[in-house]
Amino acid sequence: MNNTVDLNKRVVLYDIVKGIAIYLVVLGHSIQYIDELGWQTDMMERYIYAFHMPLFIFVSGYFFYPSVRKYSFKDYLRKKFLNILLPSISVGICTIIMESSLKIIKSRSIIFWFPENWEYFGLWFLTLLFVILVIGKLIAMTNINMVHAFSVLVIIAYFLPDKVLMANQLRCLLPFFVLGMIMKIMSIRKVPSWLSLLAFVVFVFGGQFYRFEHSMYFFSRDNENYLLVYIYRVVIGLSGIISTFTLCVYLTNFKNVSKFLSLIGQTTLPIYAIHVFFFSVFVHLHIHIDNTILILAFSVLLLIISYFIYVFTNSQKYISLFFYGRSN
């Protein structure tokens, strides 16, 4: 009997993981913008927000090393700017234009909209990832041990005050980036079945206590319980990540499902960028649907629509460059 979960199915497995992750992003936003009145207390939403962004940054950490050593700093900076930061900036600018236009149409007066919190301008996750990758490249140019250096950064990030730009996001997500990197460096390719089961149990039962007050969006570094919440978020996030990998390994046995998720997983950035524009419109419609089945159906439909918009627009040079991080 095999007592391990084999992770040595590189391309397909990690594309499936990314496919699951981007669907959770779309689903989370669907609940948030369609169920405006009750999304913060929705149980499914709380589980999603407990681990879906840690999952994304974990995968980014896994692929960060040793590929970071392939390029000079100048080439690496240019590559990551075009592939990651430029789409974030482009979406942010377009969102300001769309929101301002909609407000002008509704009020029939000149009103310009700007984000209340500039930390979440554009595709904030990509902006944060760009910062982490550039820092990582600077470390890679030295003789400093990569894991040791990033571990120190995790400690420094923990003590950053809230007023530092993106400090909350960095505190919350950097540990998972480091864990993904450690997994790659140590060539961890199998997860024992007992650990997979333990992670699932911890996630299911521990996730029930997750609240949005605990998230990086709301929880302050100055809170007296911050250390406990910090540890709790890491444990729940990691258990969710392990559970997702276990699920994805199982899904590789189903050809059509794994093929679909793999296809979606290869286009996570375009889907991330495209689906944001839909919610820029929905937020002004004040739609309230609290039916779980309808929300699930809507999120799947939006995922598929976003994918096909990408397929039909990817051949356009400037759209592909500015919004998808790809040069044709």
Within the largest sheet, what's the order of strands? 1-2
Put simply, the count of helices is: 12
Number of strands: 2
Overall tally of structural domains = 1
Question: What share of residues is helical?
Answer: 55-70%
Can you summarize the main beta sheet?
2 strands, antiparallel
Report the C-alpha radius of gyration, rounded.
20 Å
Query: Strand pairing plus helix content: what structural class?
Result: mainly alpha
The percent range for strand residues is under 5%
Low-pLDDT windows of residues: 5-10
Order of helices and strands: EHHHHHHEHHHHHH
Average pLDDT confidence is 87
Q: Span from first to last CA? A: 48 Å
Form type: globular
Assembly classification: single chain
